[in-house]
User: Fold these one by one.
Assistant:
Number 1:
Amino acid sequence: MSPTIHVQQLSKTYKVPEREGGFSAAVRGFFKRKYKEVKAVQQVDFKIEQGEIVGFLGPNGAGKTTTLKMLSGLLHPTDGKADVLGFTPWDLKPEYLRAITLVMGQRNRLSWDIPAADSFLLNQAIYRIPDDEYKATYKELDELLELEPLMKKPVRNLSLGERMKCEIAAGLLHRPKVLFLDEPTIGLDITGQARIREFLREYNKRTGATILLTSHYMADVTALCERIIIIHHGQLKYDGGINLLSKKIAPFKLIGVMLAESNSHDLSKYGELVQNEEDWDKQYIQVKAEDVTRITSRLLADLPIHDITIADPPIEDVIEQAFNS
Amino acid sequence: MQTLKLLSAFFKMNVQMSLAYRADTVVNILLNIMWLGWELLSLNIIFSNTETLGGWGLGELIALLGVFRLVNTLMIALIWPNTEKFNQSIRDGSMDYTILQPVNSMFLVTFSRITVWRFWDLILAVILIVVGINMADQVTSAPQVLTFILLAITGMIIIYSLWIVLIALTFWFVKFDNNVTILQALLDAGRYPATVYPVWLRIIVTFIIPIAVATTVPLQALRGELEAPQILTFILVSIVSFFLASRIWKAGLKQYSGASS
């Protein structure tokens, strides 16, 4: 059987207008535009079989969204081929569009001022879903996502997590065979993220749908996907099992320390000091995962600690370390 | 059939959206009642003082005004709100979802928003047309009335096509919020019979800018001033312009998918 998604040498180059800052440059730029070519995706190849959940991982600007948009049909590639369910996505055949869905965590498809239930009904009309089928699908989604209490409120009154549930449900009413999910958990709190993950796993088990999801959160991917594709600077860097990957990526943890007094203590003897611009009142050290407990207890014993956190390093850093060295 | 179902779904949704905010709804209803009163008053003033304009009789002028109002309703109830939504969707990226729906995107973009409050406008326009035809000096025969209706429809199609072209330009320019302002300016020129304008302007208005086509030409058909070849030409023009517009729309979509990120 041929794979559900088959991508060959897929490439996308954008032309981005570019100019220097300043007034005269703005005037010159009006008459004569300069363009810079940005290679967003370069010769990417992969195959995904029916029923797989594949995690698409990479830092911001790596080309994840661009690839997803090409596979859903929104973008024409500059070069290369893609085959999804036997269709070329960018032909935008209605039969193709009825078989897939694209959910983007940062965009809204639901109308802001009316309850989601009304937007759902519009989707039913657009996708020509027969009444009984619509009811069955809705019931199933409601079971998994607990939609019912959210359906009667205008979308603008929902919390981010609640809205995301409705957005995902709206994208699944037509029972797509292939799901493209772009950062479906972005901005959600830990429980919200866990709930969406739980749902996706269960949905995949029940329907056998193929899922390709991008995420910023390592946890999303480790929880859901057995297989991972890593893309960095538009190039495919890794395609394989998650277990192999964790061997390749040295498992590090980040310990954040806020001292009760001044920051005069030298933390570099406990581990490698790491810059973190977002959280300036803490100092961060990077240590091997197996040493976390030992070093944390030493820190607690040695220093006047006000607050301490242990976290995974940002995915950008992990990939940078694994593939740039 | 599917199209009708979708249209009714859009209409329902727009009614729901208009009713979402209570104060807003009340103000809208009041405003529209006032508006209607004002329009009827101004009609009364025009027709108590004017008998003919550019060689057209009172009945024909009333019918002309009706057709003009029909076009205007199209403008206010459909073109303005959908363009506004379209311009916004290009910038905030929700256009992506529109493109991925298994329905003609041109149809989705042009019919998904309907200003339901202007529905009475449609009724008023039809009343004006019917009254005008009945008052017209020349005895109008059934075929003349039929060609009038036919040409009013072709006129609408030409305006619709022009609109599509204007909004499709946004795909290339990203920001082109004046797209409808241009159309409105062109349309306002169609308020008076094309014959009141100097010849050169009439040529522009009739041929280069086909707005008068939507208002004056149907009326000429009503007066029996048009020959069969002319009528056929207008029908042909509307078909060609619609065809061209959908081609330009498709090219625009392709441009969008080539440029956006």
Note: The mean pLDDT of chain B is 79.
Number 2:
Amino acid sequence: MSSDAHNHQKAGADHGFEPKIIVFCCNWCSYAGADLAGVSRLQMPPHFRVIRVMCSARVDPEFVLRAFERGADGILVAGCHPADCHYIGGNYRTRRRIALLKMLIQQFGYDTDRLQLEWISAGEGEKFQKTMTEFTNTINELGPSPIRGGE
Amino acid sequence: MAEKIKIAQYWGAGCGGCDVALLDIDAKILDIHAIAEVVFWPIGFDGKLEDIEKMPDKSITVSFYNGAIRNSENEHVAKLLRAKSVIMISFGSCACFGGTPGLGNVTNREEVFDTVYKKTQSTDNPKGVYPQEITKVPEGELELPKFYNDVKTLDEVIDVDYFMPGCPPTVNLIALAVDAVVQHVTKGAPLPPKGTVIASDKTLCDECKKERVEKNRRIDKIYQAYEIKPDPKKCLLDQGIICIGPATRAGCGAMCPNANMPCRGCMGPTKAVIDQGASMLSAVSSLLNITDSESTLSEEQIMEMMMQVKDPLGTFYAFTLPKSPLRRIVKERNKKG
């Protein structure tokens, strides 16, 4: 999708920290939005891996926890805007799960900013770029996931 | 019948309930007596570890290990029994998933010692005496097991043949396991494949007698079990009480829900999933009612709705924390703000 590293990492660049970011994109809105960002050649940090799912509600909470277990520094779940879900109400379930997951990972000692939910439509290539840039910056500030780099 | 087989039962970090559960099988205990000699059972007899050490490898037919691995002694005995046993059974929730002692993974050794030997109201320890692994006294050296930072499950330290979840495993399940061993020993019947979980492959709801809403299940509010008096005929989850049944393996006969207490998940995850907590978290999130005004709700309102779930970690991982993907709590290095 994006090929240029660009100069987006600041805080982390000093210690050579390259964040591992997992982005779950729903097939109908967010993946198309990400695609639009790519074909529009919008520049963004290259540290994320996109996983396409049919609906953001397909993101089983276990996927998120497994990703953290395997060393993901940040996880973004992107879906259709409220009222726009291809399956009517998938995204409503998603945001409840993410809210509860945020409470859970906080109890496990993770900063809740490591998990983010964003609504990105098929036309919002720029929003995808902005989201990825900001999220990467947030993760750079936080540093490596405590499961791999912490105590 | 020829020579009796040898069996052993040991407790690691557990409460002793599993040992008692083995006695609860009533007359079945005579079947065990008929074919087996108990060589080691600290709660029952005065056995010595060195006697076990002297036995040849694989001379014990079955070992039942209950309790989690909390210290070096738990691990040492687990490894010893593994070497001496043909069949090793992980007995009870603590050995299988960490169980209640597994919740120790929300803290660490330092904090546990600090609480126990310093901070509790009843502690009187002006000299700050902490347990030491080795203490020198005039008579020589005294040794205490090493207390680990993490609670581990049995299968993290040794190879386990069968798993028997439950807190404690119910009489029916124990009878099932005993029968399998008896049939194997007396008639040469084949044993179940290695790694088998001796319980049902279905979910707990399958065994629960309560009536549940079949279509469009929705709840408006979450209640703690003490807040309302549930209708004894209806599903607890439908009444807003978090019952872990949908994410829990069957085999216990749904004793708790049938006594109007929500399931807390001691039987562990079902066959189809690995993480019990995540699957329950998902179920609870999906059950809360979605109304027409849903699209206008702010993220804060959603968070407030989910805050009805008090203590998600303690609710969803009451028995399986060391076996869960994140295993234990960690500390962020760069706290923002």
Note: The helical segments of chain A are 30-39, 61-69, 90-107, 125-142, 146-149.
